[in-house]
Amino acid sequence: MNQKIYIITLCLSFGYGVSVQDYLGCFKSPTTDFDSPLLVFNYAVTPIKCIAECKSRYFMYAALMKGEQCYCMSKYGGDGPSNGCTNPCSGDGKAFCGSHDSMSVYSTDQKGPSPPRGLEVSENKPTSLRVMWQPPDIPNGIVRSYNIRVVAVETHSTLQLFPTQIEIIGGTSDNTVLTNLQPGTKYNISIVALNAVGESEAIYVIDWTQIGPPDKPEKPKIIEKNDSTIKLRIAKGSSENGPLTAYQIVVADAGIIPPTSHDIAYTNYDKAIKNDIPYYITGEFEAAEFYKYKEFVVGNGLKIGGYYNAPLEQPFDNPQIGVVLVSKLRNEIQYSYSDLLGSEKSDNFMFNRSTGNSGFDSTIVGLCVAIALLGTLLLATVLGYFILRRRHEQIRMTKLPEQQELTLQGPMHEVDNMAYIPEDVPERPNHYQDLKSRVWSIPKNFLNVDSIPLRRGRFGTIHTGTVQDKNGAPTKVLVHCISDGKLRASEKKNMLRELDVCIKVGSMNHLAGLVGNCETPDTLYVVLELPPQNLKSRLLGARSGDLFPTEYILPIGSSIAAGLSYLEAHKVLHSHLCARSIGLTDDFVPKIMGFGIGRHSLEDMKLARWTAPERFGHKKHNPAVVWSYGVVIWEMMSMGGTPYSDLQDECDVEEAVVEKDVRLPQLRDMPDPVYEVLLSCWQNNSEERPMFDELMRLHTLSICPITAITEPYLPELELN
C-alpha cells in the first residue's frame, strides 16, 4: 500500500511539472534542529511553487507538510525515512504534501551556496584594492574558497588590461588585496563562493584605483631668448596612470634643486618673492589647450591660468625652466616634473648660442675639429700597430729552418680567426636551438590556451590550458605566452637565461618541469606542468573539512627534499620556496614549482616569513633554501598556518629572527624529533644546517595525528 502511494505521488508530481528526479522521498519531520527547516508558506501551496520559492532563496531542498506548509532547508532526513506522506496538497489535490509528522522532500537543483554578502572596497591605492566581504548566509555545506574576478571597465592606459582571476582558499576568509592593478582605472570586481559541488551567483562592486603620476615630461627647448623673456617649445605629455589634466611652466633660481615629489605643488610668483622661495609657477594651461601654448613665452608679464608670468628679473634673471604635468581625478592630484632647462652646462651653451655669442661658437667649433683630428690620428696608430704585428709574425714564420718540427705546446687559442678554437672553451649556446632539440615542440592544434590570464608575468601573460599527449589525452598545463619580438634585448636575454634553467634541469618526479614549447610567428608558448592543486590550498582545505592524512606529511617533506637536492645538483637554488610553490597531485605526490621561468607564474608573495637571517638586507645573495624548507614543514604541521602570525610587518619579522633569535614554535602535535630537525634547519650558521640528502630521511621519523589547529592563516601577511 505504501509503495502504491509513493508511486502515485511521483506520477502526480511528474504530471504537474515536477520531475521524478526532483522528488527525494518521504521523511520524518525533524524533532531537533539538525535540518533547520525554514517555513516560507503556511497556506495552500503546490510542490512547484514551493520548489521555486526555496530555489530563489538558494536552498538545496524544499519540503511540504500538513498539505499546505512549505519549508526550505539545506539538509534533510536526519530522523530517517517515513511512510506517512499521505496528505493531499491544499493547493493541488492531485499531489501529496507530507502529513502532520512527515514531509515530502524535493531537490531544488541548487548546488552552490548563496552569494557572499556586503562586498566592498575598503582601501584604494594606485596599484591595489583591498576588498572585504561577508560569507554566504546559506553555505549548503562547507564553503571552501572564493573566486574573485577583476575586469577593467575604464582606464587611461594605452595598454590592454586583461581580466584577472584569483582564488582565495578557506571559507573563513573575508578580505584580500588585489595587486598589480593599473593606477587611475575603474574596475568591476565580482566574487563567487564555492562549496564541494558548485558555486554561488556573483556579487559585484565597482571602484577606482588611485591615480599615479603622469609620465615624466621632456625638458623644454629654447627657441628664442632676450633680456626678460625666453620662448620655449614644449613637447606633448602623456599619462598612463590617470587623466592628463594640465601643464605648468615653472621657473627656478640658478643653482637651486627644487622638490620633485609627485604630491608637491609649487606656489605662484608673488608668494615666492614674499616668502623667499626660489621657484614658482609662471603659467598653467589645460591639456586640451596644448595646441595654443606648445610655444610658450616665459616672462611676458601676462596672467596664464591664474598665474603671473613675471618678467625674468632678479633674482630670476638667469633661470632654470621646467615643465610639470598635472593629473587630477576626484580629490586626487599628482604631478610629474621634467628636468630643468639651464641646470647643466649643455643648457648654458644653448642659452649663449641663442643670444648670438659667435666667439663662443667659434671656440666650440675649433675644439670639435681638434677632437676629430686627434681621434683620426689615434685610429690610424692602432691600425698601424696591428698591421706591423701581422707582418712581423709572417716574417718570423718564414725564417724557421725547413727541418724544424712544428709542435703545439698546450692549447692553441684563436688569433685573428686563423687558428683553432681551444677544447676547453665552450661553444656559445643557442638557447632557441636547445629548446627545439631537447624538449617537445608542441603542434599548435595540440595546445589550447584559456583566454583569461591568471596573472601578468615579467615576460608576458600566464594562462592555464590543456595539451594533448601523443595518445590524444588532454593534460592541464601552465602556459607562458611570450611575445618575444616585442621584448627589449635585455629582457629577452633574461628570459632565455631563465628558460635555460628549465631546459638544464630536465624532468624529475618531484619537479613541475618543462613540458614543451609551441612557436607561432608572433608568440612563443612555454608550457610547464601544472599540478591539480598546490600544497597551501590543500592544507587550507583541511581546515574546511577536506581530508589531509597526517601520515602523508613527512613523506611529502622527504620528497620535497629529494627535489631540492636534484635542483641543487644542477646548480639551481630555489628563491621562492614555500607551501604555495609546491604542487600536489591527487595522490599526494609533491611537485616543486617556481624555478627558472616558472617563478613568474607564482602568486605575488611576501617571503620575509620564509627568509633566513643572513638574507635580510642582502637580497642578491644565494637563497638559504634549507631554512625555507624547515618553514614549509612547519606549514604542513600547522595545516597552512601563517608563519609568525603574531608579527604584522616584515620589519618585525626581521627584527625577531635576526636580532632576537626568535624561531617558529613547536606545535602541540609536533613530535620532539621533528621539531629538532626544524631547529637544525634554522641554525644561524648556514654551515651547521643539514644537507638535503640528510633531510630526505625525514620520512623515517614518526608523527602523531594532528588533533588541533592552533596557528591562524592570515592571507594579508603572505600575499602582496
Automatic annotation (TrEMBL):
Chain ranges passing through the membrane: 364-388
One Gene Ontology molecular-function label: transmembrane receptor protein tyrosine kinase activity
The keyword Glycoprotein is annotated on this UniProt entry: yes
Keyword Transmembrane: yes
Lipid bilayer topology: Single-pass type I membrane protein
Location of the protein in the cell: Membrane
Gene Ontology, cellular component aspect: plasma membrane; receptor complex
InterPro entries noted in UniProt: FN3_dom, Fn3_PTPRU, FN3_sf, Ig-like_fold, Kinase-like_dom_sf, Prot_kinase_dom, RTK, Ser-Thr/Tyr_kinase_cat_dom
Protein name: Tyrosine-protein kinase Wsck
Naturally occurring in which organism (per UniProt): Microctonus hyperodae
